[in-house]
Amino acid sequence: MNRLEVDVGNTRIKWRYAEGGSYVAKGALDLSEAPEVAKKLRIQGVMPQQIIVANVAGEEVRLQLKDGCQRGWEVEPYFVKTQKNAYGIEVAYADVTKLGVDRWLAMLGCHHLYPSCAKVVVSLGSAITVDVIDMNGMHEGGYIVPGFRLMRESLRVSTAQVQVDSTSLQRVDLGKNTAEAVEHGMLKMVIAFIESVVVPLKPQNSEAIVVITGGDAAAIASSLTVDYLHEPELVLDGLALIAQ
């Protein structure tokens, strides 16, 4: 069965398309293109019989996608919801509706890829999330902090003189101008945040791994001083697990 997996974030729509069990196409669209997803993907030969979606962009976008898929392909998309105990992961939240489906799917995807060890799943997108999972799939909890774009926007809106639009995240040395001070400072802060979660875990579980994902993961990877694995499609991997 031809399957389309769709990860709708706060700014982008990532997608991956499988025919006969093999992935043949993938890509990304701007969130504003949600009503045109079917039109744009049909041009690339995407003709799904099954559509499975993770959506954290709200009800309006969900309805746009649903309508577009029904009009473009005559297929009803399935919108995944977070579950308390399923696919090997038991969520720590008492109210699982408060855990974003993207975080849950990233944990599913990660646990499926690396089932025999504890994991720290770090997603770097509009928000930066960290979730800790033990080797048995028990979610121990997590953190959510603003992502780089939100940090830049906060400085732009809340200060008169710190107006930085740069998106270069490569160094953590002392900045020699305002742009460097902001960019290097943000990167240093995020690196310290991630490592403050990981380092205390190591004495308890030396086999614990760090897995990074999300749009900004590649930008920070070279600055991490802890060992890590980069899995850019964890949410889509989680969708694939559910679709099987």
Automatic annotation (TrEMBL):
GO molecular function annotation: ATP binding; pantothenate kinase activity
Keyword Kinase in annotation: yes
GO biological process: coenzyme A biosynthetic process
Protein origin, superkingdom: Bacteria
Compartment(s): Cytoplasm
Gene Ontology annotations for the cellular component aspect, listed alphabetically: cytoplasm
EC numbers for this chain: 2.7.1.33
Entry's cofactor comment: A monovalent cation. Ammonium or potassium.
Cross-referenced Gene3D superfamilies: 3.30.420.40
Cofactor(s) in the UniProt record: NH4(+); K(+)
Main localization category: cytoplasm
Family annotation (PANTHER family): TYPE III PANTOTHENATE KINASE (PTHR34265:SF1)
Oligomer status and interactors: Homodimer.
Official protein name in the record: Type III pantothenate kinase
Organism: Spartinivicinus marinus
